[in-house]
Structure formats: structure tokens, C-alpha cells
Design a protein that fits this description.
Shape: globular
Strand order of the largest sheet: 9-4-6-5-10
Helix content: 25-40%
Number of strands: 11
Distance between the termini: 56 Å
Radius of gyration: 26 Å
Length: 473
């Protein structure tokens, strides 16, 4: 029996869409007419429409430990191509939009739980009464760039459109400090680390306490994400919260306030400096945060637009992006000669070339290795221990839910109702490749789009239901 993923009319649309690539269309029809197509679709749906799934081959057997009876067995021998496909889990939207969407969702729940509380994740709702701010720390200027000022016209005399490719690029490339820009990105992790240290010191100073005494009555919790600006400089968005000494379960001291936190953040950012020694032809530098520091209370009087959900959504959006927003590659560059083949914007290419030039001068900084990230080698999202739940915990909840579903479908005993160690699982898996053929890739993208549309519709319906409920209260 021939299987078609879409109606004849839709197939015609597909043909028009891929008409310039007959190989893709031929492969798509091959996949759709394969006897194992239905099972292949099932696998791809389970990955969420992953763009680059991992292929595994192998088997698993579940036995009753006491009798040795086989309770369940599975082998990839009967699967399409003899393989099981699982999601790649890549957080980058440029690599896998489907897995990145899942990652962004997890980040959203992690950040929001630290703002609103979530009893399911052991974060009390009382954190809503704790001082909380949304702050942004930026890089300093490395030279004037094309922008969209409030006056309407850039220094170059042009009123740039929001999508203009010139935005963020140097007005005078010959005078722009490309070396300083990539060194700043490279040391941004140390700047952040020192900021968190100075922030606690500034809070202690404003409360009239020593740092040791501060730890006995107040804890600073945060969740942050990095974002690349158009000019290729990384900056950090963060949620900062003041708790009691034992974290979100305890109330902060009476002197803790949003105003104190705002003042401490600005003072701490102003104190931070990382000194880079002179080497070769490059002079010594003192790297600091930029003067544009933004601190806003979350919710509250006069700040209704900066809602808890808006902050969590904003942070989650940038958790799946990296330096490719500047036009650079999302993969490592093995040698400088590859840069010419990438057809990069001129500004981005100069930043990458600066990384390679500095790599020989500061070999311990691994600038060439991280040139595709314009020198940045830190984590894109981090949090303090007590801020909220963890991404691992959120993934485990999802994995446990799926495992429970499969257990019921297979008729296996419930671990909670069975003696400890009543079953034995024997498994053997081998890596068998990754990715899709061209036709599979098109179909997977269609599946991912359908899954996302359905989930977003369900979320909107739930939000409307909650609004109606709140309106009736």
C-alpha cells in the first residue's frame, strides 16, 4: 500500500516548493511510499520533529527477576532502516528548531518559577513578595556603529529600517576596536563572576552588615541568560531576587527592598574590572561593563508592562540563540581559510579574524577555537543554586511521564506496587548515525510545525480559560 503524507493537492504544492531541487522531491516521495512510513512518522513525532535525530540500533528486554520470564522485549530490527530515532536535544534554534523550542519552554518554566513560585517544584508562591528585579548588563563601546537612535537618523545620516543589515556594523571599520570587542566577549564570564561577588558586598554595605552576617539573614538568587547584540558584543539579562538565609522558603530581612537591590546592582557593575596583560603588539587592557545598565522592578505599581510572564518569555527567547544572530557560523571554524567560504558580513568577519590574530598572543584564552562565537566561551544560561528548579529536574519529569505511559501500554508492573527490584532490564544500544535525508528533513519540519501549532493553540485556550476563571472570582 502506498502512503502519502498529504493530499494530492498538497503534493502539488510540495512539488512547487521543491521544484528547484528534484532530488529532495524524489526522496520525499520515496520516504512517503515506503511500507515503514507510518512507523517512521511515529518516531519523528516522538522526537517532536527533531531536525537532526540520533539513530540507535539495539534491543532491550525486561524480565521478572524472580522467575526469569520475559515481560517485554524490543528490538530495532523491525524499525524503518533498523534504527530508533531520538531527539538530538540541541538548544540552538539554528541547529534544531524543535529541540530548541522544548529547551526554551523549560527555561521559561525555570525562570518563571523563580519569579512567581511553583509548589510543584518546591518554590513557594511567597517569593512574589520578595524584592525582584529584571536587570541588563551590557558591553562598553568599541567604536560607533550604525543604529536607530530616538532622533530617527543614524550618524551616517540614514534612517535605518529595523531589518537593515547595516545595523550594528562599524561606521569606520578601520578605527573600530575589534580586538577589544572579542577580548571582552572572551572575558565576559569572569566579568559576570566578579559582578556576583561584588553584588553581595554592595548589598552587605548598604545593609550595614559584614558579608558573613549578610549570609546569616539574606541570600541573593539569580537566573541569567546571555544575548548577542547586532554589533557582536554579548550582554546579560538577569532576574535577581533577595531571599531569607535559607533561600526562597524564608522571607528576606525587613531592610531588603527593590531600591536597595537596584542601587547595589549599579554599584557592583561599576566596580568590576578584569585586567588583561600586554602581550606582543597588544597593549594591556582593563575590561569593564558598559555604562548602559538597566534595572526594572518586576510587576508592581507603575511596572504593569514588565509582568512575570513577560520576563520569563524574554529570557527564554534568548536561551536558544547564540552568535549566529550576527551572521556568523553556528559551528566551529577549523582554520582561518574557512572564513572566506562562509560569506560572512564584513563586520562579523573582522571579529572572527581578530580572534585568530589574538589566539597566538593569548593562547590560553582559546580565541580561535571560539571564533565562531566571536570569542565568547561562557554559558548562555546559568542560575544560582536556590533560584529555582533545574533543567535536569524538568527533563526528568517529562521522562518519568513518558516512562509511566509506556509501562502502562506494555502491561508492566507499577514500581510503586511491586517489591523493590522485581524486574530486571537488559539493554544494548549502539550509535548508528544521525540526521535525515533531504526528503525526511522536509517531512520532519512539517511534523514539527504541526506539533508546535497544536501546543500553542492548547496553551492559548488554557490561558483564555484561566482569564475567564479569574474574571469570575
Amino acid at each position: 500500500m502506498t502512503h502519502l503524507p498529504v493530499s494530492p493537492a498538497a503534493v502539488a504544492d510540495v512539488a512547487a516548493a521543491v521544484g528547484t531541487d528534484p532530488l529532495t522531491l524524489a526522496d520525499l516521495l520515496r520516504v512517503a511510499s515506503d511500507p515503514g512510513f507510518d512507523r517512521w512518522q511515529d518516531q519523528i513525532r516522538r522526537t517532536g520533529g527533531c531536525s537532526d535525530p540520533i539513530h540507535l540500533s539495539g534491543q532491550t528486554v525486561t524480565r521478572d527477576r524472580r522467575t526469569g520470564d520475559v515481560l517485554y522485549s524490543y528490538s530495532t530490527a523491525a524499525e524503518p532502516g533498523g534504527r530508533l530515532r531520538i531527539a538530538c536535544g540541541n538548544r540552538r534554534a539554528s541547529r534544531c528548531p524543535s529541540c530548541a523550542w522544548t529547551y526554551a519552554g523549560d527555561t521559561y518554566h525555570l525562570i518563571r518559577a523563580g519569579i512567581t513560585g511553583d509548589e510543584r517544584r518546591d518554590i513557594p508562591v511567597t517569593v512574589r513578595s520578595h524584592p525582584r528585579v529584571f536587570a541588563t548588563l551590557t558591553a562598553p563601546s568599541f567604536g560607533p556603529v550604525h543604529n536607530r537612535p530616538s532622533s530617527g537618523r543614524c550618524r551616517c545620516g540614514v534612517a535605518h529600517a529595523e531589518t537593515d543589515a547595516m545595523l550594528g556594523t562599524a561606521l569606520n571599520p578601520e578605527r573600530y576596536d575589534y580586538a577589544g570587542a572579542v577580548l571582552w566577549n572572551n572575558f565576559a564570564g569572569q566579568l559576570w563572576q566578579r559582578f556576583t561577588i561584588y553584588l553581595r558586598r554592595e548589598i552587605a554595605a548598604r545593609s550595614g552588615l559584614s558579608q558573613r552576617a549578610l549570609a546569616d539573614c539574606c541570600r541573593v538568587s539569580f537566573g541569567k541568560v546571555a544575548e548577542f547584540q547586532k554589533r557582536g558584543a554579548v550582554h546579560f539579562h538577569m532576574v535577581v531576587r533577595l531571599d531569607g538565609p535559607d533561600g526562597p522558603e524564608t522571607a528576606p530581612p525587613s531592610w531588603a527592598s527593590v531600591a536597595l537591590l537596584d542601587d547595589a546592582i549599579r554599584a557592583a557593575a561599576g566596580r568590576v574590572a578584569v585586567n588583561v596583560p600586554a602581550s606582543g603588539d597588544f597593549a594591556a587592557r582593563s575590561l569593564r561593563w558598559g555604562t548602559q545598565i538597566d534595572v526594572q522592578p518586576i510587576g508592581g505599581l507603575g511596572h504593569e508592562d514588565l509582568t512575570e510572564a513577560a520576563v520569563a518569555s524574554y529570557v527564554a527567547k534568548y536561551a536558544t540563540k547564540a552568535a549566529e544572530t550576527t551572521g556568523t557560523s553556528d559551528r566551529r571554524i577549523g582554520e582561518l581559510a574557512e572564513v572566506e567560504k562562509l560569506h560572512l558580513p564584513g563586520h562579523t568577519r573582522r571579529l572572527i579574524e581578530a580572534c585568530w590574530a589574538l589566539d597566538a598572543v593569548y593562547p590560553d584564552r582559546l580565541l580561535a577555537r571560539w571564533s565562531h562565537m566571536l570569542g565568547f566561551r561562557g554559558h548562555f544560561s546559568t542560575k544560582s543554586r536556590a533560584y529555582s528548579t533545574t533543567l535536569g529536574a524538568l527533563r526528568q519529569v517529562r521522562a518519568d511521564y513518558r516512562a509511566d505511559q509506556e509501562r502502562r501500554e506494555r502491561g508492566l508492573p507499577d514500581p510503586d506496587d511491586s517489591p523493590e527490584g522485581s524486574t530486571l532490564v537488559l539493554a544494548h544500544w549502539t550509535y548508528a548515525g544521525h540526521g535525515h535525508t533531504p526528503g525526511e528533513s522536509w517531512l520532519a519540519a512539517t511534523i514539527a510545525s504541526g506539533i508546535r501549532t497544536n501546543r500553542e493553540s492548547a496553551r492559548e485556550a488554557l490561558a483564555d480559560l484561566n482569564d475567564d476563571f479569574e474574571g469570575e472570582r
